[in-house]
Amino acid sequence: MQIEIALIELGILMLALALLGRLAQRFGLPAIPFYLLAGLFFGEGGIIPITEAGPFVDVGASLGVVFLMFVLGLEYSPQELRQSISTNRLSSVIDLVFNATPGVVIGLLLGWGALGAVVLGGITYVSSSGVIAKMLTDLNRLGNRETPTILSILVIEDLVMAVFLPVVAVLLAGDSVMGGVVSGIVSLTIVSAVLLMPSSAGRQVSRVMNTSSSEVLLISLLGVVLLLAGLAEYMHISYAIGAFLVGIILSGQVAERGRALLEPLRDSFAALFFVSFGLGVNPADLVEFIPLALGLALVSAISKFGSGYLAAKKNGFAAKGRRRAGVTLIARGELSVVLAGIAIAGGINSDIGPVTILFVLILAIGGSVATRFAP
User: Fold this and answer.
1) Quick one: angle between helices 352-372 and 290-314, nearest 10?
2) pLDDT band at 222 (very low <50, low <70, confident <90, very high)
3) Which residue, of 68, 209, 252, 372, is most buried by count of CB atoms within 10 Å of its CB?
């Protein structure tokens, strides 16, 4: 890698994102759609393709998700999430049925086989924790009454994917189902242990982490969250949910100071996360898949809105809260792309790649704009 070229490319990219952020602010829109489109502009076949800076953008994108989910986790305690997950168990079953079914049916109609159809069902099922966390933060909706319901559904979806991803990877590799199931059960056990952690344990961890030096605290937080997010990914748990779980363990003064210290890093690296979606895509290669992706996105947007609406209704929220919950959950993102990558590597029809990229772009952009104008 030529370091001088990489630095120049990064400088151009960051300045472009800053201008797009100002433009979004000027019109009162979320910046996410602009960042996603910037990825196509700077990607393969774009106007100014990024070449040397690509590896840094990939790492920065992962850091963006980690910081987004970690700071979001600092807002909640394990007790609050346990109660919310318990309350939304039935809603999560509805969420799974409503949103996996369109992908499975369309995959079968396309002739991708049973495993390909199941993979497409997973792609249409899981919402984007990263995109939704950014929207809730940017629109100051973390304190909304329906937000814990949204977060509990996201957490349950990631728990389902913690089991689903290793099972699919093992099946595509031609190994036994039992190996994937065992890996998924281990992952689920670890996540459950964190959620069942007593509040006293969280206070003890926070006491050990606390220090009068903001510099030392920031370095400590970065070390802990990156280490544990990486270990979570190694255990086939999404590193996003790993970072989220680290955040909910911490409490008190450490959580408050941590939010203030990490917010600038979160916002900067989150922009790279959204840009990274389009960098590896040549827009010309997507044209033939637009009708299929649009149809899949439309059906999936309706089904996700319906499941979110019903979850909020079950929890007794007013009509406006129900609509906000339904619209906020529409966005798809990182796990859908990851699942498509596993499928392509495993020999599933290669069309699943461009279809998924278009599907994610449409719903990430459409979902974020719709959330901005939700009541």
Assistant:
1) 50
2) very high
3) 68
CA distance 226 to 118: 31
Q: Report helix, strand or coil for 267.
A: helix
Angstrom CA distances, 85 to 15, 149, 315, 316, 351, stand at 41, 8, 12, 15, 36
Judging by beta carbons within 10 Å of its beta carbon (0-12, 13-18, 19+), is residue 96 exposed, middle or buried?
Answer: middle
CA distances from 358 to 42, 109, 294 (A): 16, 19, 8
Give a three-class secondary structure readout of 79-108.
HHHHHHHHHCHHHHHHHHHHHHHHHHHHHH
- CA–CA separation, 267 vs 3, rounded Å? 24
DSSP alpha helix (H) spans, the chain: 3-26, 32-42, 54-73, 78-87, 89-109, 113-125, 129-138, 147-172, 177-195, 199-209, 214-234, 239-249, 252-279, 290-314, 319-328, 334-345, 352-372
Tens digits of residue pLDDT in 278-288: 787 778 878 89
Q: Is the pLDDT of residue 205 over 70?
A: yes
How far is it, in rounded angstroms, from Cα 218 to Cα 323? Answer: 38
Contact 71/247 with Cβ under 8 angstroms?
A: yes
311 closest CA partner among 143, 79, 94, 82: 94
Is residue 359 a contact partner of residue 123, using CB atoms and an 8 Å limit?
A: yes
> Under 8 Å CB-to-CB from 67, ≥6 apart: which residues?
225, 243, 262, 265, 266, 269, 270
What is the pLDDT at residue 105?
A: 94
pLDDT tens digits for range 81-109: 777 778 888 888 999 999 999 999 999 99
Whole-angstrom distance, CA of residue 196 vs CA of residue 6 = 45
Cα(41)–Cα(48) distance, integer angstroms: 7
On whether the CB atoms of residues 257 and 81 are closer than 8 A, the answer is no
Q: How large is the angle between the packed helices 54-73 and 252-279, nearest 10 degrees?
A: 150
